Amino acid sequence: xxxxxxxxxxxxxxxxxxxxxKIRFGWFSGWRRRTSSRSNQIRTPMRLGLFFVLLFGTLSxxxxxxxxxxPLNVLSFNIRYNTPQDGLNAWPNRKxxxxxxxxAYQVDFAxxxxxxxxxxxxxxxxxPAYGWVGVGRDDGKTQGEFSPIFYNKQKFEVLKxxxxxxxxxxxxxxxxxxxxxLPRIATYAVFQDKRNESQVFVINTHFDHISETxxxxxxxxxxxxxxxxxxxxxxxxxxxxxxxxASPSIKTLTSDSTFKLTNTESLSxxxxxxxxxxxxxxxxxxxxxxxxxxFVGPDVAVQRHDYLPILKDQVFISDHWPVLSxxxx
Length: 329
Hints:
The chain is α+β, with helices and mostly antiparallel strands.
């Protein structure tokens, strides 16, 4: 893993700068700039291509509402519970840093894990341009961890949403199976782009941290539910899977014979940046595994894939680095 960049208030590149009492991420301009030239080169043919896809797709009975060429910035982010035992890295010291990732990277969709109701409220207070969907895993309402999906409500509206439990009784709130240590959920939504009415299916989850049997069965259930609920729309899956990509449960996710999910890192047109692990355990020298992923279905292209190792004044953004991908479909 590359050395972690320690962000200081005076930093002007790859860092946080404080201006008018707000935190900005100085390295976003570079991240955006590395992807803009190619987009400019293909803008005109892309528009023509979109016209013909819409025309012939409509004539052939294929829904034109699945077609979009606006880039999407998608985040998978385990924000870590609000627990005082984290000391300097407790949520009250991290919440501003966490919220600023959304605006600094112009995030369109963010799948969060370990989000409690109070933390969601904290983020909403700082992010008025974003809405969210989700429920607590303990009671299907407000109790326990959420796996919410935040979305830019200026660009997208929710057409459909729901949550199911990763268990043998997925519609029963609080249920768990397969020796799972805790109830686990997946929250999903169909979003429609207000700019061109294209639609996309986004789903977010957090697998069990103890039982590999639970993770494998959760992967099977997840694939089944995606096929059932996505209605052939482009699919984006975010999550903390608590297991590396070579594990049986991840292979279950990516090897289904009738619906293929792919890790966005392997599809990225640009080289991955941000190191070699996503779990840092609040340690600068932690070389933990990659357990946080963004997967996409076959209709989605990937321009960029990055981990975001963010520190400010020795405060970690979380005990997981956020994962960021730029996508088109």
